[in-house]
Amino acid sequence: MPANEQQISVVARAPFHVYYEGPAYSITATNKVGVFDVLPGHADFFSMLSPCTVTIETENDQIKFAIHNGMLTVRSDEVMLFVNM
After folding, report:
1. Exposed, middle or buried: residue 80 (CB in 10 Å: 0-12, 13-18, 19+)?
2. DSSP state, residue 34
3. Are 20 and 10 in contact (CB under 8 A)?
4. Of 19, 31, 15, which Cα lies nearest the Cα of 58?
5. I need a surface site. Which of 18, 59, 65, 79 has the fewest CB within 10 A?
6. Running DSSP on this structure, what letter comes out for residue 42?
7. What pLDDT score does 1 carry?
8. Domain 8-83 class, CATH top level
């Protein structure tokens, strides 16, 4: 991804583990409706997550981790994931 492309701020954590904290280009996860992506400029959003593999696309890496439950919030390009609670 180009360095000048807009990013979102992400915190992805479980009760005793931080999966990722920092800027990202996208997040992919699954809820009851299906697979969805969060991109820069996404509307404010809240969702309970279904068992899935979460993917966080960063400038240098693709972070993937399996979850069995969780919730995700988006507000003003800030994304919070709380998983495996």
Report:
1. middle
2. E
3. yes
4. 19
5. 18
6. P
7. 47
8. mainly beta
- Residue 25's DSSP bridge partners are none
Q: Is 42 exposed, middle or buried (0-12, 13-18, 19+ CB in 10 A)?
A: middle
Give buried/exposed letters for 45-63 (b at 16+ CB in 10 A, else e).
Answer: eebebbebebbbbbeeeeb
Q: Nearest CA to 42 among 78, 16, 12, 85?
A: 78
pLDDT, position 4: 57
Confirm whether pTM is higher than 0.90. yes
> Which residue ranges make up each domain of the chain?
8-83
Q: Which amino acid is at 85?
A: M
Count of residues for the chain?
85
